[in-house]
Amino acid sequence: MVTMTIDATPIDGVHVVRGHWIHDERGAFRQHYSAQELAAVTGGATFAQGNHSRSHPGVLRGFHLEPWDKFLYVPRGTALVVVADTRPESPTFARTFQILLGDEPGEHARVLIRRGLANAFYALTEVDYLNDVSADFREEGREGIAWDDPDLAVEWPSRSPVLSAADSSWPTLRERFPDAAFPLAPVRPSAD
Fold first, then answer.
1. 3-state DSSP assignment of residue 142
2. Comparing C-alpha atoms, which of 18, 120, 102, 104 is closest to residue 65?
3. Per-residue pLDDT for 15 more than 70?
4. Checking CA distances to 63, which of 18, 117, 140, 156 falls within 20 to 30 Å?
């Protein structure tokens, strides 16, 4: 019986993991990940730390660019999650992938993001956001990209979200990678 699928996205290193519900008279059950199945797309990376944040509607967190793999999940609420390819050598550099996670789509998918990619999310409702990472948290090596970077061209639900001081001060991709080859025009985010 297949209880989980792992789907590739247009950006190498980003996968959507879906657990499929099994219903009976008691309610429902689903497997939302299997370490063995994830190993095929993570190269065997394991997760070392689990983080849980709660955000009010209108909060935007990111784009966070960190030196570890991430496995995202929204068990409560609805968030617009956007992943940006911040690898100058990648054929999809400066492109984004977006997906709604949580209650609104109704399936509670997870997103696996490999290191070298940046992610952000916008809380459409009050959101519980789980972020499992492949290394223990450390401040060094953490970077970010401007949430409103014109090269990423993300159409966020609000042009004036609630931001942390750090998230409002990250540089653009062009500032971070001045020698990179950028697409001629921003590419609209792909959606799942």
1. coil
2. 120
3. yes
4. 18
In the structure encoding, which two tokens stand for residue 154, read together?
């993300």
The SS3 assignment for 39 reads helix
**8-state DSSP, 5:** E
Which has more confidence, 169 or 183? Answer: 169
In which region does residue 155 sit, left (phi positive, over 0), alpha (psi from -120 to 50) or beta (all else)?
beta
Rounded CA separation 92/11 (Å): 6
Contact assessment for residue 185 and residue 177, using Cβ atoms and an 8 Å cutoff: no
- Cis omega (within 30 of 0) on the bond before 63? yes
| C-alpha pair distances (Å), 113 with each of 56, 149, 161, 187 | 24, 20, 24, 20
Token pair 């959606």 is found at: 191
Strand partners, 129: 53
Q: What is the reported pTM?
A: 0.89
The whole-angstrom separation of Cα 19 and Cα 70 is 18
Contact 96, 143 (CB under 8 A): no
Summary mean pLDDT of the chain: 89
* Residue 151 near residue 172 (C-beta atoms within 8 A): yes
The architecture in CATH of the region 45-191 reads Sandwich (2.60)
Helices within 22-179 (DSSP H only) = 35-42, 173-176
> DSSP string of 52-72?
EEEE-TTBEEEEEE-SS-EEE
